[in-house]
Structures are given as structure tokens and as C-alpha cells.
Design goal:
Rossmann fold, 9 helices
Length: 198
């Protein structure tokens, strides 16, 4: 999470959406940086709204706008799958090394996913407890040039985005049946991505 005081902008970092590269590039311009611990780096909207927004307001930072990146649900899950399949996760309870992407997505879309398929839920990250979208500016990961143009204009800086935390390549084949299962179980994920700025 990054807070830009002068520009009145708060960047909320949903995991697996290119946030590491963005934060590395934008950190020098930020007034506040929460990066090292995952639970701080990936502060969700509802937690920001409940705690940090009040604190920042007491510091004189009011009328802050929030920004977040959403990735297509299948690609987002694919990034998690590849991340958990890397050698560093060998033997871990959430390793996906010995399973297919098909199995991973099918399990994620089940009623009670196994530990290795629990990776969070993007709508929960960007919505209030009442279910309302609380992010001012949503961008699709797949339309990164639009996000970069927005940030360059808002922050008045040139942004050259390096690649960071790139997961190893893997077979990302998904059957129509499993895709339909995911769309039926989590339609909000697809709707939110579709409604993000394009």
C-alpha cells in the first residue's frame, strides 16, 4: 500500500496484479509505504477504510482517492497457481506442484476449498462489508498502459515499469466445464473485472 499525500491518492495492492513492480517504481514518490509484511502490503479496502483512512485524516490528509488493479479471474488464479508451484513451496501444505491448473481452479470454485486453493477473493478486497465497491479508480491488469498513463498524469512523473515476481511458465489449460463452474460460483469476480476502467 502506498499513500501519496500531495496527490491525495492511495494505492491498494491486490496480490498477483503486478503490485510489486508498481510499488518498487512508485515508492520514492510516496509519503507512506507499507510493503514488507504481506498483511500490510496487501491492506484491503475495507481495512483501509476502517482504520487507516481515519488516521490519515487526523494527519490532515482528507479527500484521498483510492486506486486498485484487478486481473482477469482466470489469469489471477493462474498466477497464484504458478506461484505456489515454485520449488520454494515444495512440501508446503499449499503447494500446487503436483496438481494441474484444472484441479486448482475446480477446487477454488468448490464450497470448501482445500488449503492449497485458498488464495482470497478480489471482490472482498475492493468492497465494503455491505458489498459496495469502495475503490475510486479500478484498472484492469491487462490494460496496464491505461493505468500507467493515469499514474503519470496524477503523480507528474515518468513511469518505466520493470518486471518483478514473475511466476514460472506452466500449462494453464482450463476446460469449459471448469470455467463455467468458476463463473457460476464467483460471478462477482468477473463482473468487477469487466467494470474496471478500460
Amino acid at each position: 500500500m502506498l499513500v501519496f499525500a500531495k496527490e491525495k491518492l492511495v494505492f491498494l495492492a491486490l496480490p498477483k496484479t503486478g503490485t510489486t513492480a508498481l510499488e518498487t517504481t512508485l515508492e520514492p514518490a510516496a509519503a507512506m509505504v507499507l510493503r514488507k509484511a504481506p498483511n500490510l502490503k496487501h491492506t484491503p479496502g475495507f481495512r483501509y477504510d476502517a482504520f487507516l483512512k481515519t488516521y490519515l485524516g487526523k494527519c490532515g490528509l482528507t479527500n484521498l482517492q483510492t486506486i486498485c488493479v484487478l486481473r482477469h479471474p482466470v489469469d489471477w488464479l493462474g498466477s497464484w497457481y504458478r506461484y505456489r508451484a515454485r520449488p520454494a513451496k515444495d512440501g508446503a501444505a499449499n503447494s500446487t506442484k503436483d496438481m494441474t491448473f484444472e484441479d486448482f481452479v475446480s477446487e477454488y470454485a468448490s464450497d470448501d476449498p482445500a488449503k492449497w486453493a485458498r488464495v482470497g477473493y478480489p471482490p472482498r478486497f475492493i468492497r465494503t462489508n455491505d458489498g459496495d465497491v469502495m475503490i475510486d479508480h479500478l484498472f484492469q491488469y491487462e490494460q496496464m498502459p491505461l493505468l500507467i498513463a493515469f499514474l503519470e498524469d496524477r503523480l507528474k512523473m515518468k513511469i518505466d515499469l520493470p518486471q518483478r515476481n514473475v511466476s514460472p511458465p506452466s500449462d494453464m489449460t482450463l476446460s469449459a466445464q471448469t470455467l463455467a463452474k468458476l463463473e457460476t460460483k464467483h460471478p462477482q469476480m468477473f463482473e468487477d473485472w469487466e467494470n474496471a476502467h478500460r
